[in-house]
Amino acid sequence: MVQRFDVTGSDGVRLAAWEFREPTSPGAPAEGSRLGSGPGSGPGVLLLHGLMGRAFHWAGTARWLAERRRVVALDQRGHGQSERLANGPGLPTAFAREAFVADAEAVVEQLGLAPVTLIGHSMGALTAWQLAARRPDLVEALVICDMRASALGAASQREWEEWFRRWPLPFPTQDAARRWFGEDDPRVERPDPGRGAFFAEVMHQAQDGWRPLFSRRQMLTARETWVHDAHWEELAQVRCPTLVVRGLDGELGRAEAQEMVRVLPAGQYAEIPDAGHYLHYDQPDAWRAALEPFLDTLKATHP
């Protein structure tokens, strides 16, 4: 069962947050229902997707987490069903790191999730550890999924600009989008079903075919605000227990991941074989097996 909450984020942006509950939970609403607020049960978890993602990318993870926790996934600004922001001169401010972090902070406070466990993928992981560094009073634990602390640089941003130009939009069908991102995209070295599934879920049917839910220009703007900077200093400020997870073939290298663990005052490391950047899609069982022991160590704080 899934319940939608509308949350007011930084600068008044309306955000769609989704609470996942077990079907047997008393009073659990049907999927798609909308309420203004409401308490959940169990320790809070906030799931933060990566750039171009959406809250429902976490559906598989949320189902097993919801067995013992209150689980909320956020459509971050410019993504999913959160408010669409207009293109214009204000974009750099609207998509600044501070705005994403303030949005996550607002969700935790408005939905009463603290002390929360933050689980973030890629850009969402960066948002998570920046919030943990800024507001340690709100955050109990943190999971960083395949996100680098090092600067990616201007060349990386130019590569993304060129990649966006190559998208053969519109796709005739959603399956065509799945095949292109999973097999035909020049950035794919070998078939990657998890990647195909990830992108198929962020396509919607427009009048002329299937197009992304997000603005590619806005995604580049959001990325511009963090790819040129390293984030080691903020990482070192995270005091809560933190699990750094990487896919063996992901974007976060082993040496950097282990250095991140060393920098973190309470860091732990996990690696998932046969998984790329979208490891929770590639290997959902191994992903769960990596997270559960870490999350079980938090039980003592919730008698």
Summarize the model shown.
By secondary structure, the protein is α/β, with parallel strands linked by helices.
SSE-based structural type: alpha/beta
The quaternary state of the protein chains shown equals: single chain
Envelope shape: globular
SS field, number of helical segments: 12
Q: How are helices and strands ordered from N to C?
A: EEEEHEHHEHEHHHEEHHEHEHH
The biggest beta sheet reads: 9 strands, mixed
What fraction of the residues are assigned to beta strands by DSSP? 15-25%
Cross-sheet strand order for the largest sheet: 3-1-2-5-4-6-7-10-11
Overall description:
The protein has 303 residues and is of the alpha/beta class. 36% of the residues lie in helices and 20% in strands. The chain contains 12 helices and 11 strands. The chain has helices at residues 59-65, 91-94, 97-110, 123-134, 154-166, 174-184, 193-200, 216-224, 232-236, 254-263, 279-282, 284-296; strands at residues 2-8, 14-20, 33-34, 44-48, 70-75, 116-121, 139-145, 203-206, 209-212, 242-247, 267-272. The strands form 2 sheets. A 9-stranded mixed β-sheet has the order 3-1-2-5-4-6-7-10-11, sandwiched between helices. The chain has a two-stranded antiparallel sheet with strand order 8-9. Helix 10 (254-263) links the parallel strand 10 and strand 11. The longest helix is centred in the middle third of the chain and has 14 residues, at 97-110. The protein is globular.
